[in-house]
Amino acid sequence: MTTNGLTRFLFLLFVLAVCIASYGQQSDFLYGDALPDAPELAHRGNFSVGVRTLEWTNPDQVDVQQATADGQPKYDRKITVEVWYPSMSGSGTTSYDEVMGVNGDPNRPLIPFSFLGRATRDALPAVSEGPYPLVIVSHGYLGSRYLMSYLTENLASKGYVVVAIDHPESTFRQPGKFASTLYYRALDDLFVLDQITKLSDHTADSFLAGLVDPNTTALVGYSMGGYGVLNAAGAGYSATWGRAFTQLTEGSKLMDNRVSGAEGYVSLADPRIKAIVAFAPWGMQRGAWDQEGLKGIHVPTFIVAGDQDDISGYEDGVRAIYERITGAQKYLLVYQQARHNVAPNPPPAVANGEGINPEEFMRYAEPVWDERRINNINQHFVTAFLGVHLKGESELSEYLDLTEDSLEGTWKGFRPRTSIGLELYQAKPGDAKQ
After folding, report:
1. Is residue 219 part of a domain?
2. CB 389 within 8 A of CB 274
3. Domain around 335
4. Domain CATH code at residue 272
């Protein structure tokens, strides 16, 4: 071999080694890990994380998919949840089995894929340092309990018990009529809160016994999950929405007692709920909310939006919800030039050994933003917000008391030049900004 030939051969070996090392580093990066430019509070907390799957049945519920003016058939509503919690085990990983697509749609068949998370399956809970505040997480339509695992794991590592719901008739594996999602989102959240309350009692035969403080609960929802979170926190639906639901369900009056101001109206607000986080909450553009109904929210509220949201809308959608909440301390975090996907995990690069369909990729991805970057920013702000309002960690308010435009000053917790593209609005009850 000539000297030049040897030089080229050694160079190719070097390039191959760099590529292998780079691939190894990328494969070690899991959903939710902090990027080098992640804001300060995005980093995981001091707890190891355990994870378990639980299945419950809410008996004798109205089958909204079959309800009409002439009848309301009943069924047992089976709900699967994933629970992340502080654990006594060391750090570990677990595999989450997920799918993309829509079950029954020949144009978008279900494609299985799996990804690793930083949690240990069935680990012993760290009961001695509890009880911990509860966070209930609600996915979009369609979605799954794993859709925001980057956030659920992160919060559990910081001393929360986090429960994410698979909403029946609203998941990738089990799609159903949209009316079921409209009716049950808030009710599922409250059913899960009741179940955790029972299982967290010191006398309960459950790993959750003594682990959770259900009287200090936050609800977190994305898209249709955000729609449900608002209702569960006290926002009544508009009269327009009540009529629309009746038409959608062939004359059913199921939603009438949740229409704000209507005779027989019953607010779903629960004193155990101390704060809510709504990512791209849906419904304002479709008439679900009005000023009177949103006055029913009295718990601190953190809303996240993309200012180009083409599903929930921005000016007449998510921002309009924020502006009409007048009875609570509120925040609106805005990703400039982002659309609707400001909450989910990053899109998988492959599924079932094949490249991901562009339509499925865009269920997760943002055209302008790196989804991993969005995940880190969400971790940072949700950590600050829940720390202040669920744990009383008043020092974290420094990470929320910011200039509206991130370019007008360096935001607390962000490296210089890394807060570009963000806005944060906030107001308290009675502020002139209301």
Report:
1. yes
2. yes
3. 31-427
4. 3.40.50.1820
Peptide bond preceding 142 in cis form (omega within 30 of 0): yes
Does residue 51 belong to any structural domain of this protein?
yes
State residue 352's pLDDT score: 63
Name the token pair of 242.
Answer: 């009540």
CA angle, 131 then 33 then 200, to 5°: 15
Query: If you ran DSSP here, which 8-state letter would residue 226 be given?
Result: H
**What does the block give as tokens for 295?**
């006055």
d(C-alpha 48, C-alpha 50), whole Å = 7
Q: How big, in percent rounded to 5, are the helix, strand and coil portions of the chain? A: 30, 25, 45
What are residue 374's phi and psi, to 5 degrees? Answer: -60, -45
Its pTM stands at 0.93
In a domain, 2, yes or no: no
Answer whether the bond into residue 175 is a cis peptide, omega within 30°. no
Count: domains in the chain: 1
Residue 4, domain member (yes or no): no
pLDDT in tens, 352-376: 667 788 888 998 999 999 999 999 9
